[in-house]
Amino acid sequence: DIVLTQSPDSLAVSLGERATINCQSSQSILNSPNNKNYLTWYQQKPGQPPKVLINWASTRESGVPDRFSGSGSGADFTLTISSLQAEDVAVYYCQQYYNIPWTFGQGTKVEIK
Amino acid sequence: QLHLQESGPGLVKPSETLSLTCTVSGDSFKKDTSYWGWIRQPPGKGLEWVGTIYSSGGTYSNPSLKSRVAMSVDTSKTQISLRLTSVTAADTAVYYCARHLAVTTSVVTWFDSWGQGILVTVSS
User: Fold this and answer.
1) Which residues of chain A fall short of a pLDDT of 50?
2) Which of B46, B96, B110 sits opposite A52 (nearest CB)?
3) Residue-wise pLDDT tens digits, B77-104
4) What is the C-alpha separation between B82 and B117, in angstroms, rounded?
C-alpha cells in the first residue's frame, strides 16, 4: 500500500498569512507516460464531508479560490493557502489514486492563530 | 447536480452485519464510467477507503477489511449498498458514499461528490 504522510499534523496561522501543508508518499505517484501526479487535496470542515480542492497535484477544481494552490512531483507534494481566511479553518487531506488501495494522508488541521 | 444520501441503522451490535444503502440522484448513475465508493471516518480521525463498485457490479475493496466487505448496485433504484460483516467497535465511524470519478475505465481517481455521511456505532 502507498502510505501518505502529512506534515504538520496541525498548524495555526494568522489571518492573511501563508499556510503550507506537506504530503509525502512512500513511493512515487508520478505516472511517466502522461507525466501526471496522481494526487488530490481535500478540505473538510466540521460536520461536513470532504470537498475536492486540487487534482493531479496542481489543478484547482472549478470554483476553488485561487489562494489555494498545489505543487510538487514524484513523492513530495505541497498544498499552500496563500492568504488564510477565516473560512479556511478545516482539516486538509491528500489522497493518492496511483495504486489500489486508494489511500489518504492522516490529515492536517488548520486553525487561526 | 448529483446528490447522494446514505441510510441505514445507526447502531449495530458487535459480531453482526452493518448494512448501508446510498441512494443516488442525478444523471450519471448508469454511465460506463460511473464508479461509486464507500469511505469511512472514525470519530475524530482520518479517512479510510472501504470499497468501490462500478455500475456493472464489479468491485474493489480495501484489503485491510479482508473478506468482510460486500457491495452491490441496483441500477433500477439508483442505489449502491454496503455490507460489512463481523463488526467490532473499531468499525464505528461515519460512513460516506461518494462518486469515485473515473477519467477512463482504467484510471479511477478522486471522490468528487459526497453524501453527508451516516454515523454507525458498534455497541451492545
Assistant:
1) none
2) B110
3) 999 999 999 999 999 999 999 999 998 8
4) 13
Alpha-carbon span B72 to B75, nearest angstrom: 10
Rounded to 5 degrees, what are φ and ψ at A17?
A: -95, 170
**Whole-angstrom distance, CA of residue A24 vs CA of residue A3:** 8
- From chain A, the residues in CB contact with B46 under 8 A are 93, 104-107
Residue-wise pLDDT tens digits, A9-36:
999 999 999 999 999 999 999 999 999 9
CB contact under 8 A, B49 and A107: no
Q: How many CA atoms lie within 13 A of B56 on its CB side?
A: 4
Report the pLDDT value the prediction gives residue A50, as an integer from 0 to 100: 98
Q: Which three cell numbers stand for residue A40?
A: 488530490
**CA pair distance B63, B69, nearest whole angstrom:** 9
Alpha-carbon gap, residue B51 to A89, rounded angstroms:
29
Cα–Cα dist B24/A81, whole Å:
33
Q: For A40-61, give the secondary structure using H, E and C.
A: EEEEECCCCCCEEEEECCCEEC
